Amino acid sequence: MDMTIVLNTLENGAVSEQMGTLIKDGDVEVLNTSDMKIAHCLGCNMCWLKTPGLCAIKDDYAGIIKKLVGAENLWLVSDTRFGFVDWRGKRVMDRIVPMLNMYVEFREGLERHELRYHPLNFGLLYKGKADREFLEEWSRRVASNLAGKSLGVIKMGEGEPCM
Amino acid sequence: MHVVIINGSPRVQKFSNTDKIIQSFGKGLHVSGATYELYSLSNRQEWDAAREAFIRHDQIIFALPLFVECVPGIMLEFLESLPTERKNPAQMSFILHGGFDEGHQFRLGERFLQSLPEQFGCTYGGCLIQGGSFLIRFRDDEKMKKAMDKKIDAYIQMGQSFVSNGNFMTEEASKFIGYEKNPWIVHLLFRLFIKRLVRKNFERFAQQWGCTRPLDDKPYL
To answer: Are A81 and A87 in contact (CB under 8 A)?
Structure first.
């Protein structure tokens, strides 16, 4: 059965009941990152070239990577700013790099890093005023980097995902 | 002209490819008689001064690497700390770079950057883009060093161009990225030769860094 990880980056950890309705089948685990110690990615490349697959930052994100290794779907729940996800939402996505490895390949005609584990589908549930079409394109590109498909972009308080 | 340059990379300045790009671009500014002051967001102690400089001056350039298809989270955090209204007009321009070398990889990030100045009461001064910057840090053999020196040195001319034109809204700047998509021959050569060569290079770098595991290791399986 598909495992879904929901990274809730909203400040108070509150999520709408909407997440439950988004995921029709499979196991779901919601992780509230506001309760966690998570630093920004340092761009140090240690996870690619020194300790492959292991981040040099010793904080709570290692637990998230372990969960993602056992998952097929990732939903990001994020507030927005400047029409995009806010820095809390982007911070947890910047740290996803150890899920890929250093090697490069062409996938569907695009330069991509190879997957370290397996494809991961990606979706976004966002709060606030944002450029929805931009977020959809970002979501597609993030999913493409992870060799998965976009699960859609949903504004909190609305119903169906926009694929 | 006096330019405030803010390095939006989270990587420490000493190892920052963005910093090397800025230093070269800054040479070009100096050659053309302009001055600049630099702040690096990787150092939190510089944030207050960077914010002050952003408010006070009228030529601001953010230089940044592409992170997960957009702006690094650390730069978004800094942007959230800036005032969204200003008394004096200013121009915000951008230098965007990243590991992959095709133009289309940067277009979404560019689109986001394009939308930013207006949200801070500034005008948009364009975005200078170049890919293939991953190797800037790795110049251990002559051939690679030469190629990377050439890449970095090209920013000197772009610094001069920025002073003479006042922005990056020029044909010269828009051509800086090179190919929008690699031609088919590159795909073919990649499959036949380049892929193997690139892998070997990465493995050599890893060895130099003291890596004892395969690069495609799966530590959590």
So the answer is: yes
